[in-house]
Write a structure and sequence with these properties.
Blueprint (H helix, E strand, L loop, with lengths): L3 E6 L5 H10 L5 E5 L1 H7 L10 E4 L2 E4 L1 H12 L6 H26 L3 H30 L11 H14 L15 H11 L2 H8 L33
Parallel strand pairs: 1-2
Antiparallel strand pairs: 1-3, 3-4
Helix pairs in contact: 1-3, 1-6, 4-5, 4-6, 6-7
């Protein structure tokens, strides 16, 4: 079997779904966690000067989405059926769109503007996207987003929803999922999956730092199409 090493910081971030994918899929891997100081030393040698990266034997791969799909494919968490795979990709890309909507507020340095952006996010943008996810689950008629079994898109949504519910983004309440019953039920179903539960009790999740996971400065896939959102009257 190939030697696999995932390198990221000691926080959840975009690497958390990847760690879960390897763990749930039963794929042995080295979970290498580096400090900011270590990252500064290796940054110039990274393919895109970003983390996470995945090292498989002598090959080094960047971009969290590519790494996640690799983990899903070798761990049986990514469908072989093209239609089902496209659905998984769609849900993952939806989450990246949500992250892209949040990102500007993270890097905003003006406190008043930041709070204004977070107000728009919590009252308009996030409820809109959460409603899309709620509707997807309703139409799917299943606990998970694609089929009856857990896939990598479930892990992505779960880890990001967990992040939002931690209340680490000032101005976005930890009750953000209150009105989205199916999305909440999905998070509970993923959390209760035996392998996911074990990951946080006995696996890498047990030692993951509590720092707020950063969102990468650029999307981990092709540029996003701008989205027109309804005005909140502001």
């Amino acid at each position: 079997m190939s030697s696999i090493t995932l390198t990221y910081f000691d926080i959840p971030g975009p690497a958390e779904a990847i760690r879960l994918a390897f763990y749930v899929g039963g794929i042995p891997f080295k979970d290498r966690r580096v400090s900011r100081q270590e990252f500064a030393k290796i940054k110039r040698d990274l393919p895109f000067a970003q983390l996470p990266i995945l090292t498989v034997d002598d090959e080094v791969f960047p971009q969290s989405a590519a790494i996640l799909r690799y983990a899903g494919k070798i761990g049986g968490l990514y469908p072989s059926d093209p239609i089902a795979a496209a659905k998984v990709d769609a849900v993952i890309d939806c989450m990246f769109d949500i992250q892209a909507a949040i990102r500007p507020s993270i890097y905003e340095t003006n406190a008043q503007r930041k709070l204004s952006m977070r107000k728009e996010l919590s009252e308009v943008t996030l409820p809109l996207w959460l409603q899309y996810l709620e509707r997807w689950l309703e139409r799917a008629g299943t606990t998970f987003f694609v089929g009856e079994e857990i896939t990598i898109c479930d892990l992505v949504i779960y880890t990001r929803m967990k992040w939002l519910r931690r209340g680490v983004l000032v101005g976005i309440p930890d009750t953000i999922l209150r009105n989205f019953r199916r999305v909440r039920a999905h998070s509970e179903a993923v959390a209760s999956h035996p392998k996911v539960d074990d990951y946080y009790k006995n696996g890498p999740g047990k030692v993951t730092g509590d720092g707020s996971p950063p969102i990468p400065p650029s999307p981990p896939h092709s540029p996003l199409t701008p989205i027109t959102l309804p005005s909140n009257g502001d």
